[in-house]
Amino acid sequence: MTQAVQAYAYLRPSAVHEGPAGRRLALETSGGSTPLGAAANPRFFAGFLTAPAPAAAALLAVADVAAARYHRPQLRASLDPVVTANGDRLRFESFSGCCGVYARLDVLADGLDGDEIGHGTTNVDVNNPLRESLGRIGATDPLHLAVGPDALEVTTLDGPLVEKKVPLPDRWLRGFAETQVIAAGLDLRAELPAAEAVAFLRTLPRTAAGGAQSRAVRWVVPAGRTLRPTSRPVPGAVCLPGPERLVALQRVLRHARALRVYGPSGVREAAAAAWEVVLPGMRLTLTLSPDASRGFSGEGGVLGALASGTEQDADRIAELLAWEPRIEPADLAEQSGLPVGRVRAALTRLGTAGQIGYDSAEAAYFHRQLPYDSGRAEAHNPRLRAARALHAAGAVRLEPGGTLATVTVEDHHQRVRTDERGRASCTCLWWARYRGGRGPCKHVLAVGLAREAAAGPAAGATR
């Protein structure tokens, strides 16, 4: 798979410094984006963490995910977490090396006490000495946080002292794109008080049985103030595949105030779910892919938006984003003059460049800016490339009535049917295997392209 080498240039290693006023956590930044453009080492915040021990444990949990591969755990990963400053909070994000676990720590306004929080996105250095220092933070230790270099110190340095060149697979970018689509489809299914949350999470295995990844699909269902396991997807159940992948939450259990679980409604097969631990002034969320051996990068949730003609819409919406912590599609629709449906499609498309995330706790999108070009995810998606080739070759025949279409691939004919709610199905083997669970097949995408072309720009303008 194609990889890009992302160079992380830090002025110095991140560290916890001892001083007369207590400990100071200095998180060093690499090149990133700010409202004024690209910055070599942006500074986002300097102040105190109001809950030092929970914050240190939660940062370590995000770093644990970045360093782990839950599928084939004998292989280690090494990716520096991403930090986004949204003006009223700091968000730390990471993916596991296998791309099957997404971690995000939201340090909210109540968790920060200091100067103004900036705006922008960058990577932060998390090294082994820093991890060891964070592990020693106690409940009564004051902890000062600085995200970015101190301007006075920068002037004394000749150049970067720490540089990491990390190969970032394209699936990492696609994982960011897919998780924002998946998260937007999750609803709160259960909320456990602190004691019950800790008791439940401590029952989960730290490793898969026998050292191998568990393949059986597990489910849990709300039962009073806790969750109980169930062998099948009964109404209200939430999927829990590979429960050992929640091991990073063990770091914060003693600080937990509640556990919230988010999942899709009416699921009958394995599905993604988000597990959020509420901490003092912050939230730590782990989102699990539907299978321990299955990364988010192949879910296909963004293919419909990529296949539709939303490039101009996405450009228009991108101009209105400003690292907002909460993005409301209705507000963007009013500002841009686009229908809400087209705004949502544009946001999904922007998510394929890592510009959009989704916070299930607030049911809202948020803005970040990762160092990827907007066409990269599309260029490396084989289903979308195949669909465009089929459409360009004239392989799609739309039947009268608008509900049926035939796609000819060599000497095979696949029938695509669209119901009254706009849901499509296909007669191909991909559809028979996944039933739409991993996004549309190339035939459905090709039919969508053909219908859009047949409708013309006038129809598209009213979507």
Automatic annotation (TrEMBL):
Highest taxon of source: Bacteria
Single GO term (MF): zinc ion binding
UniProt KW keywords: Metal-binding, Zinc, Zinc-finger
Keyword Metal-binding: yes
PROSITE patterns linked: ZF_SWIM
Domain SWIM-type: residue ranges: 405-452
One Pfam family of this chain: SWIM
InterPro entries found in the cross-reference section: DprA_WH, Znf_SWIM
Protein known as: SWIM-type domain-containing protein
Species: Kitasatospora indigofera
